[in-house]
Amino acid sequence: MFILAEDSERTRGQDAQSSNIAAGKAVSNAVRSTLGPRGMDKMLVSDSGDVVITNDGATILEEMDIDHPAAQMIVEVASTQEEEVGDGTTTAAVLSGELLSRAEDLLDDDVHPTAIVEGYHEAASIAQETIAEQELEDEIDADLLERVAVTSMTGKGTGDIGAVPLSETVVQAILMVDGEDGVERENVRVRTQTGASSSATELVEGVISEEEPLHENMPRRVEDATIAVLDVDLEVRESSIDAEYNVTSVDQLNAALDAEEGELREYADTLTDAGIDVAFVTGDVDDRVASFLANEGVLAFDGVDDDEASAISRATGARLVGTVDDLEEDDFGSAELVRVEKFGEDELAFVEGGAQAEAVTVFARGGTDHVTDELERALADGLDVVTAALEEGSVVPGAGATEIAIADGIRTEAASITGRKQLAVEAFADALDVLPRTLATNAGMDAIDALVDLRSTFEGEGRAGVIAEGQTGHVADPIEAGILDPAAVKREAIESATEAATMIVRIDDVISAN
To answer: Choosing from 34, 59, 80, 90, which is the catalytic residue?
Structure first.
């Protein structure tokens, strides 16, 4: 009896397991060389010739054209890591691949997949407990947050500006949106503009709009501005029904044009009479309305996207209004300054010192599009890790020190676990060693010697990490070197990597339709 279509393909047993594990390991190996402050970049070229140069794990995996379903699971690990904590994507992907590699050895030794899965989950539980033990008791202040940001951004393509000044900008931005209900991460935006060195990057207390003024005669600088955010079209209203008008004389035509002109002028008069200095409109604005507003000294923009309109509303205290009828003073926001600056052929509008001050923008500069793109990714990672550290209120040593401690804790607990599951627990600990080993390799150290030194220093001093300096690195205390990671990043990496690896290991039958 045939229950599958004739063109279906089916792979079973060890062949299916080997194929899936090989695919997962291949994806992991693709990003391994990017790990750490001495990680290398990848150049990704699309079919259309678009080029992306980055060492950001999530971006690399997202840009890669991956078809194998097991490999896509590793991509999902990185995506989940990025969504949850914003950093540690390469760590999660590399750990997933190493867990699969160790599982493959266990399968070759006839250890049942169920025993491997149970052992991995038990080891992951021990790992989470060890992470809690590694958390620093220091108060989460601005200095500590800056060290977290520096750790995240060091080694990434940031042009001619170092991670230290960038970290100050990042921390300042996050602290400005930290309120009683926690960090409003969506209130921090990153806006890039090509045409200057990266050192020109600055923090703007407000919002930057990429829309240009509607009329060349509109002012380019408005102080103490009253602002309206309108979700309307300022055009001649169209009839909701099909209608035909029979014009039989010039007087009738002039009357129709005068009525249309009067309707458009009424829009402008309504805004100016309400005392509005600057208007951001999500819809379209007729050229004649723009001309009327320019004559009254009103600065206006149209085609503002919804996200930008919401950000302006949060920054200035303006309400998003769906009609220009019955405008009230409570509908408007205010800002200390709205200025329009020209950058090459582009004009950007800066809305600064808003009444609510609930939105800030990191204005990132760079000499080329590739530099600004990578700088934007680095800033996003820095903002996310600072948010994670501030919200959870805990950080752990970086530079592979936490992984060394976790592996040691798991090996200690493994002695009390009976059966073949113990082998899987020990394999999990061995898999964790891939992270400090990779950091050492990328820093120019001998991986084996570094791992031996790390374990010895950890046993003697209780903490040891790979500190990259110059063209090589050495083993030392990462806290003294200021290398710190949010505990949330480690927790999420362990959890997501374990889930992906165990899911792949349990698959023993692959059925695909052609």
So the answer is: 90
Catalytic residue (choose from 277, 381, 433, 485)? 381
Which residue of the set 89, 91, 226, 441 is catalytic? Answer: 89
Would you call 56 a catalytic residue per the annotation?
A: yes
* pLDDT 10s digits, 197-252: 888 888 888 888 888 899 999 999 999 999 999 988 887 655 455 555 565 666 55
pTM score, two decimals?
Answer: 0.81
Q: Which of 34, 41, 54, 56 is catalytic?
A: 56
Instruction: Determine phi and psi for 228, rounding to 5 degrees.
Output: -120, 140
Question: What are 295's two structure tokens?
Answer: 């004559």
Backbone phi, psi, residue 512, to 5°: -130, 140
Number of other CB atoms surrounding residue 301 within 10 Å: 24
Tens of pLDDT, residues 470-513 = 778 889 999 998 999 999 999 999 999 999 889 888 887 665 65
Whether 502 sits among the annotated catalytic residues: the reply is: no
Residue in 281, 282, 277, 287 with CA at minimum distance from that of residue 236:
287
List the helix and strand counts (H, then E) for the chain: 16, 20
Encoded tokens for 160:
């001619």
DSSP string, 339-406: EEEEETTEEEEEEEEESS---EEEEEEESSHHHHHHHHHHHHHHHHHHHHHHHHT-EEETTTHHHHHH
Angle at 359 between CA 283 and CA 314, to 5 degrees: 50
Bridge-based pairing state of the strands 188-194 and 360-366: parallel
User: Residue 292: which region, alpha, beta or left (left: phi > 0; alpha: psi -120 to 50)?
Assistant: alpha
Q: Is 89 a catalytic residue?
A: yes
Tell me, yes or no, if 287 is annotated catalytic.
Answer: no
Q: Which of 154, 165, 183, 191 is nearest to 381 (CA)?
A: 154
